Amino acid sequence: MQYETVIGLEVHVQLSTESKLFSGSATTFGAEPNTQANIFDLALPGTLPVLNEKAVAMAVKFGLAIGAEIGKRSVFDRKNYFYPDLPKGYQVSQLDFPTVGKGSLTISLEDGSEKIIGVTRAHMEEDAGKSLHEDYQGMTGIDLNRAGTPLLEIVSEPDLRSAKEAVAYLKKLHSIIRYLDISDAIMAQGSMRCDANVSIRPVGQKEFGTRTEIKNINSFKFVEKAINYEVQRQKDVLEDGGRIVQETRLYDADKDETRSMRSKEVANDYRYFPEPDLLPIVIDDAYIEAIRATLPELPDRRAARFVSDYGLSEYDAGVLVATREMADYFETTATLSGDAKLAANWVSQDLQALLNKHSWELSDSPIQAERLATLIQRIKDNTISGKIAKTVFEAMLDDSSDVDAIIEAKGLKQVTDSGALESLVDQVIVDNPDQVQQYRDGKVQVIGFLVGQCMQLSKGKANPAQVNEILRSKLS
Amino acid sequence: MIEKTVAELSAALAAGETTSVALTQAYLDQIAAHNEALNAYITVCAESAIAQARAADEARATGSTAPLLGIPIAHKDLFCTAGVKTTSGSKILHNFISPYDATVVERLQAAGAVMLGKTNMDEFAMGSSNESSYYGVARNPWNLDRVPGGSSGGSAAAVAADLCAMATGTDTGGSIRQPAAFCGITGLKPSYGRVSRWGMIAYASSLDQAGPLCKTAEDAAILLNVMAGVDDKDSTSIALPAEDFTATLNNSLKGLRIGLPKQHFTSGLDPAIESAVRVAVAELEKLGAEVKEIDLPNSDLAISAYYVIAPAEASANLSRFDGVRYGYRCENPVDLEDMYKRSRSEGFGEEVKRRIMIGTYALSAGFYDAYYRKAQKIRRLVKEDYARAFKDVDVIIGPTTPSPAFALNSMKDSVTMYLEDIYTIALNLAGLPGMSVPAGFVDGLPIGMQLVAKDYAEATLLNVAHQFQQVTNWHKKKPVLTASEKTTEA
Questions:
Q1: pLDDT digits (tens, 9 = 90+) for A159-168
Q2: What CATH number did the domain enclosing A442 receive?
Q3: Disulfide: which of A164, A323, A343, B416 matches A334 by Cβ 3.0-4.6 Å?
Q4: Chain A: nearest CA to B73, how far in angstroms?
Q5: What is the pLDDT of residue A30?
Q6: Residues A307 and A451 in one domain
Q7: Chain B residue whose CA is closest to A144
């Protein structure tokens, strides 16, 4: 039987406010346990929540970025359940009236086509603390630093049809969030977390199959692996005549498998009701327009501009806009060097390879956009060849002095003096009589070999165009 | 001296007729003599009270004129008080020492008040008799076999028996007005949002409101001046123009429109109370007020709606008492579930557990619409009843309670007890301000008259109550206490 996969993602993003959603405690990642938990975070009796308006602004910003309806009156609710890292015994979330309503975003598929993925809603809620099971023999440690950190839970429609689409959606979401600068969105640190609802159905069937919810997926790579594993598992179950149980499954990255966590059929009844300690958030058009005015140019629009303004291919533009930092880097390099195509090549290839090799973020790179632009200018003004530029690029990693000083110090400046080049060419003609003869017999492509010899003799410093010209004139 | 009102004590202190230290000591002596019988206080802070009194006297010597400077106060034991045990009447907080002050406590302290201690109350403010306190019942100073009312029973008993000059309380369904009525004192429940709830241990967040219990309406006005005001720590507190509630106390009542809800003068009401209230209303007519009957058609639904909404909110509010971070934890739990179950089963009393269960049930999947949502609809209807009534009248008057203070252990079941709040509860649903003022005696026990005004019209309430107290003496009557008095077995 042929099956179709149906996936919906629930993505939790930690909003990068300085303080928590309902208290003044700091939200810095990695502090000593319980040093960022005040009396409200500890749920001492009598304490009350006060909404952090910056979190609302961030949620609205996200909503506008995906063209979503903004809730004019959103309401917080209490979601009740007992857990030691949930100090109040309820999580404050939004059930019926989320701040962000229906929206959508566009992903690019492998065949180059585009697909619109619906976003059902995005609601604000507070994060829980952490239970620490290691290091406490037979006991559990509780760290409430994270408790109350603002989260935006972004729920997609079940519009995704493969693990690859799910990853593309998640990466797009990540990119938009980074552009908006509303979250670090680092999956490994948990500032972006993804749960996947996965089901399969026979091709052509309208109704959805029974879904499972996969939790604990903490990298883009694992999203793909976990979904693929789960799809195969569900196929195996159905083909063995079994039925899928609606349940929560945990992804184990070490074993690359999902396993049952608890059955959703007997799941908690969360007994949601409106949070009486907080007033509804009322948002007017003026507020929405003020937030809209702060929206940066988003990746799709920026890519389109890169194609039209800089003549980049859609592919190159797509690669360069993946992160706001990369796109900014490219634009600075392109503007300062005056050659967008060269800039695009250097940024998407050499610089990207460098970052990959060292697992660096762009901000870690010792070669800033301004330096790369100078390097590109030196290629354009024939100070160095493209090949020598790669050597200079390497040298720039360890040497923070300016590009011209490095070229000078290493003696890498291109030889353009025609007298020097002519003696170089003469030497090559003398050394390679056979090839010279072949050229003269009409095998003109041999010129490439002879230019290569010249370059080698000059240790790459000869201007290849000039060498070519001198060779041709001497051999004609 | 201890029987004087706040206004009188203020004048005496300002005139140098006494000192705060002497006054505080006098109240501590009264507490020492009578608290054993009344059980009005859970905690008495003798040492710190004297220290605060000394500081107040020193501040006065250097020119301070803070409005409550040097006057001894008692706080209901659900206001968090830094460094002092705060129990909310429960075993589950038997060892809880708050690291912070409630806004109400902070404001009263800043106004110079001296804290004598923390008063007894129904556990988590759930009750109308003070019988659900883990720390034993408080007793009615007028008759030790009678309840003082609840949940602010300890505060009411303490004010009535001069175990303090004034006290704080909270009112979720009548918990200031009903004990004030039972103990023959003046109690004010302000409009919802008038006084900050920060630091007040929550029972039902959308209904809870703090207010003063005192000897006169004038004192209530003085206290409200200090307690009221928006607080950025409580999002539901409301920014209103600053008001001096004492400034309008002496306004004339000529032309005041009084409404008597017909639903509050029906068969469930003790006829002696009815006639006392009608006599009281006649006094107000003599002062120029006009009286008419009004209709509050949804009155009979208020109790049912309240007993869905309040327990629903309480079921969540009390989840934090889980034995994990503070408060009572059971001995030797075998696992997490055992710790939760036993800590809460052993830490909460019967009435609290009952309300947690009712609330949990009302919010459960499949029951939410039938109970919680319906209760919210009734709440809107009740609110509309009052809004309609206030188009024609300025104040609504009726009895505070259907009967005078009942005997200890006389309520056979919870529902009978719940019906005690029949006249008070609707105000909390509607968020309106209400007062109880002494209006007579039935069988030697004080009874109260309830005054209700529209949102944020506390000044009207205080004006009417003060004018009433200018022409009546009910508020001046004092229970007779004997230090050695034996109590009958409760």
A1: 999 999 999 9
A2: 1.10.10.410
A3: A343
A4: 20
A5: 83
A6: no
A7: B325
pLDDT score recorded for residue A133: 83
Instruction: Give the pLDDT confidence of B72-125 residue by residue, as tens digits.
Output: 999 999 999 999 999 999 999 999 999 999 999 999 999 999 999 999 999 999
Q: In chain A, which among 273-292 make CB contacts under 8 A with chain B? A: 273, 276-279
Helix (H) or strand (E) holding A116: strand A114-126
DSSP string, B427-453: HHHHT--EEEEEEEEETTEEEEEEEEE
Range of the domain at B261: 1-490
* Same domain for A438 and A311: no
Q: What average pLDDT score do residues A75-104 get?
A: 97
CA angle A231, A237, A240 (to 5 degrees): 135
CB-based contact B277:B449 (threshold 8 Å): yes
Of the residues B90, B133, B151, B155, only one is catalytic, namely B151
How far from chain centre, in Å, is Cα B479? 20
Structure tokens at A45: 């009796």
Are A336 and A234 in a shared domain?
no
Q: What count of other Cβ atoms lies within 10 Å of the Cβ of residue B363? A: 24
Cross-chain residue pair A44–B319, CB shorter than 8 Å? no
- The reply to whether A164 and A114 lie within a common domain is yes
Interface test with A, best of B95, B208, B238, B325 (most A CBs within 10 A): B325
Determine phi and psi for B203, rounding to 5 degrees: -105, -70
Q: Angle at the Cα of A283 (from A277 to A286), degrees rounded to 5?
A: 150
Residue B352: predicted pLDDT:
98
Number of domains in chain A: 3
User: Distance between CA A287 and CA A294 in Å, rounded?
Assistant: 11
Catalytic, B233? Answer: no
ipTM of the complex: 0.96
Same domain for A303 and A280: no
Indicate which CATH number applies to the domain containing B369: 3.90.1300.10
> Has B20 been annotated as catalytic?
no
Identify the domain boundary among A381, A409, A437: A409
Q: Are residues A214 and A310 in the same domain?
A: no
Query: Which chain B residues are within 8 Å of A48, Cβ to Cβ?
Result: 197-198, 233-235
- Indicate yes or no: CB of B325 within 8 angstroms of CB of A87: yes
Distance between CA atoms of residues B30 and B47, nearest Å: 15
Same domain, residue pair A138 and A37? yes
What is the number of structural domains in chain B? 1
The answer to whether residue A382 scores a pLDDT higher than 90 is no
Please indicate whether, in this complex, the C-beta atoms of A82 and B319 are within 8 angstroms of each other.
yes
Using pLDDT thresholds of 50, 70 and 90, give the confidence band for residue B266.
confident
Closest Cβ–Cβ partner in B88, B205, B360 for A277: B205
Residue contact B98–A84, C-beta within 8 A: no
What is the rounded (10 degree) CA torsion for A397, A401, A406, A409? -130
A47/B198 CB distance under 8 A: yes
Q: Per the CB < 8 Å rule, is A78 touching B316? A: yes
User: B79 to chain A: which residues are within 8 Å by CB?
Assistant: 46
In angstroms, the separation between the Cα of residue B251 and the nearest Cα of chain A is 36
pLDDT confidence of residue B162:
98
Among A204-218, B128-142, B413-427, which stretch is predicted with the lowest mean pLDDT?
Answer: B413-427
What is the value of pTM for the model shown? 0.90
Q: Over chain A, what is the mean pLDDT?
A: 92
Inter-chain CB proximity A44 and B232 less than 8 Å: no
Could you tell me the residue range of the domain that residue A423 belongs to? 418-475
Question: Is B175 noted as a catalytic residue in this protein?
Answer: yes
